[in-house]
Amino acid sequence: MQRDRRIQWEQEQELKIKMGKQEYLKKQYERRMNPKTKEDFDLLFHALEVWKQEELSNINRTLTGPERKAALYTLLEQEAQLIASISRHKVDAAKETGPKLIQNLLNKVNVTYYIKTISYKPDLI
Prior knowledge:
The protein is mainly alpha-helical and 125 residues long. Helix content is 82%, strand content 5%.
């Protein structure tokens, strides 16, 4: 009885871990495909930098002379296109989240405060 419960509990824990990993991977994929926050864009730029370094090391390792220069130029063009694409996503995300951020700020500023004066009557600030 005790052993069966223990085995069942272990299976449940393994399932939770597996589901947690799947959820994490799904969330990371969503963050990369539809970035919205600064952290999402930092993640994209970091991934771009890692990709660029891998490509650069591959080019330096395998090519020499004019072929290397052509490959470096192509890499530069690809990087510029990817940066432009990320920037377009950033502008789109700012259009979506900008009004929400402004409204949240206005809601925070629009709070009324009462203070007690010398006459101990609450006054509105």
